[in-house]
Amino acid sequence: MLDALQQLMNAQTLAETGDSESVVDLGVGFAPTPDKAARLDMNVTALDAVTGNETYTAEVQESDDLQAWTATGLLLTVAAVGQISKLFSATKRYQKLVWTLGGTTPSVTASAWISLP
After folding, report:
1. For the residues of 65-85, what is the DSSP string, one character each?
2. Strand 55-63 to strand 37-47: parallel, antiparallel, or no bridges (unpaired)?
3. Tens of pLDDT along 31-54?
């Protein structure tokens, strides 16, 4: 079950490269082995593709201290409205979503959650 403590984005709209509005805290002492899976669930409700040159990528990044962020290896190209669910290996306590937008008029609206299946 998904809840507000797991939510990275709540119908957040981005028109330029940026981070999710929230960071998910997986808890004190969180350090799973690399094969311990986490899951990103995302619902993209709006995506501008009017000029045809817009691009959207979303990457899950993690941190032990909310200062230094590293990639988890989950990098998604988002091309359409819809739901996405992907497993990845999380090894640090804090998780966020970093969006890279390109093109003439990019705009994306999405909600996203991180959970431990």
Report:
1. SSSS-EEEEEEEE--SSEEEE
2. unpaired
3. 655 556 899 999 999 999 999 999
